C-alpha cells in the first residue's frame, strides 16, 4: 500500500446520524459516525506518522503550532455562514500549511449557487433559468420563470433546505416556499426552472492540467418504483441507499460535456476534487451545483469511480493526499 510520511490533520464536526433530519435541519453536512470511522481509519493506514482530529477551525487554530509541516484534510461543515467552507483553506494558506481540497476562492464560488451558474456558463455548461430572491420584496421575480420550478437556499449544500415540497407548480406555492426558506435560513433564495431528466454527476480528481480521474454517474432506482427524472434528489432520498444507487455512464455522455467540465475544473486552479451535479435533458447537461467539498466515505460515488478503474478507496484518498503534498 502507498503511504505518506507526514502527519495528517483531519477536521470534522460530527453527529451520530441524520435519521431525524427535516427540511429545516442545518446539520446535514456534518459527519456521521460511519463516515468518520471510514475516513479516519483509512487515513491512519495511509501515513507512517500520526493522525490528529479536531472538531472545528477554532480548536485547529489553537493547536496550529504543532502542524506547520503536516497536511490537513477537512470534512468540517459548520452551519449558518456563507463563508464557512472557506475558513480551513484560508487558515492553511495563512500559515503555509498543505491541505487537501479547494482553495478559498473556489469554496466561496461553489458555496454560492448563483455565482456557480455564472462560472458554468463561462465554460459552456448549461444551467436552468433562474431568479435570486433576496427578500420578500423580490417575490414578483417568480413570475419570470416557467413552472415547475425548484426553490432552494442559495448558500447551502448537502440538500439542506430541500425536500420534494421545494418542487412547485404555481406562483402561490412558490411564494409560500420562498417565504418559508427566507425566514428559516435568513439568506437569498434561488428559484430555478426544473429540468426534467436523469440526475447525473461528473466526478473529477486531479491537479490543474493533470486529471487523475474523470467519470460520470447516473442515479437509478433499484426497485423501479420511482421516476427520478420527475422528482428532486432531496435529503430523504439521499438517506435511502437501499433504493437509490448509481452507476458509471461516462462513455454514454457527449464528450464535449466532459471537456467543458475539465476546463471549468482547471479554471478554478486549486480544487483537487469536484463533483458537478446536474440533469441530462435531450442529451444536454444542465448543472445544478458544484461540490468541491464532496462526501468522501467508502460508499461515495468517487470510490465507485475508482473501483470502476480497478482502484480502491485507499488509492483515492492517497491520490488526494499525495497531490496536495506534491503541489507547489
TrEMBL record:
The keyword Cell division does not apply. Residues 117-322 form the ATP-grasp domain. Keywords: ATP-binding, Ligase, Nucleotide-binding, Plasmid. One of its GO terms (molecular function) is metal ion binding. Belongs to the D-alanine--D-alanine ligase family. This is D-alanine--D-alanine ligase. It comes from Aliarcobacter cryaerophilus ATCC 43158. The lineage of its organism: Bacteria, Pseudomonadati, Campylobacterota, Epsilonproteobacteria, Campylobacterales.
